[in-house]
Amino acid sequence: MTRVIEIVVLLFVVARVTRLVTADEITRRPREAIVRRLPEGSPGAYLLFCRWCLSVWVAALAAAAWWHLSDVSRWSGLWWVDVPTVALALSYATGLLVRAEPEE
Predict the structure, then answer these.
(1) What's the pLDDT score for residue 97?
(2) pTM as predicted
(3) How many H-runs (helices) and E-runs (strands) does the chain carry?
(4) Per-residue confidence of the chain (104 residues) as pLDDT tens digits?
(5) d(Cα 55, Cα 69) in Å, to the nearest integer?
(6) DSSP state of 103
(7) CB 82 within 8 A of CB 74
(8) DSSP label of 70
């Protein structure tokens, strides 16, 4: 049960951080300042506005942190299996949560 709770919490952390970076008003000015410094059409600029795209990277960091910090036993016991698997699942679930949000 603890593993499930950890994964659910991780999902909401990934979803919230992704939204914070890509869409929240509180980060609008820093996001726009970064985009102004990047070349036109830059993948980095696109990443700052694409929740599906950024969630992959946020989920990868969250999954690696989960693997390193959690005491819960892993299903495979291999970091190179569990971290990418959890990261992809978190990213996809974040994308589904994004679709459930109302359009702004």
Answers:
(1) 93
(2) 0.90
(3) 5, 0
(4) 778 898 899 999 999 999 999 999 999 999 999 999 999 899 999 999 999 999 999 999 999 999 999 888 777 889 999 999 999 999 999 999 988 887 76
(5) 20
(6) P
(7) yes
(8) -
DSSP 25: G
Contacts of 55 (CB under 8 A, 6+ apart): 14, 15, 18, 90, 91, 94, 95, 98
Buried b or exposed e, range 19-43, using 16+ CB within 10 angstroms: bebbbeeeeeeebeeeeeeeeeeee
Structure tokens at 73: 């036993």
State the helix-helix crossing angle for 79-100 and 51-69, rounded to 10 degrees: 140
Q: Is 87 exposed, middle or buried (0-12, 13-18, 19+ CB in 10 A)?
A: buried
